[in-house]
Design a protein that fits this description.
By secondary structure, the chain is of the alpha+beta class. Helix content is 19%, strand content 32%. A 3-stranded antiparallel sheet has the order 1-2-3, with no helix packed on it. A two-stranded antiparallel sheet has the order 4-5. It is elongated, with a radius of gyration of 17 Å.
C-alpha cells in the first residue's frame, strides 16, 4: 500500500489479488499500514480487517462467482 501524492492522504495504491488498484482510504480513521488488509467496497476502504475476515470475504465472493452445478430443471426449480 502506498499513498498517492496530492490527494490529502485519501487515495492509495493497494494490491488486490495481485493487481494494483486505487482505493479511497479517507473513510478510515487512519491510512492502513503496509501489510494490513482492508475491506473494499466500490473503491472505498470500509475497514481494516484481520486475515480470518479477509478469508471469509474472499470465500463468499468466490462462491457468488461460481456457476450452478446443474442447469435449472423444467418447471422452475433450481438444482
Amino acid at each position: 500500500m502506498e499513498l498517492v501524492d496530492g490527494f490529502a492522504d485519501q487515495l492509495a495504491l493497494v494490491d488486490v489479488q495481485g493487481a494494483r488498484r486505487r482505493v479511497n482510504v479517507g473513510m478510515l480513521d487512519a491510512p492502513p499500514l503496509p501489510g494490513q488488509m482492508i475491506l473494499i467496497h466500490m473503491g472505498f476502504a470500509m475497514e481494516v480487517i484481520d486475515e480470518a475476515k479477509a478469508e471469509r470475504a474472499l470465500s463468499g465472493l468466490e462462491l457468488m462467482g461460481r456457476g450452478r452445478q446443474q442447469p435449472p430443471q423444467p418447471g422452475g426449480s433450481l438444482a
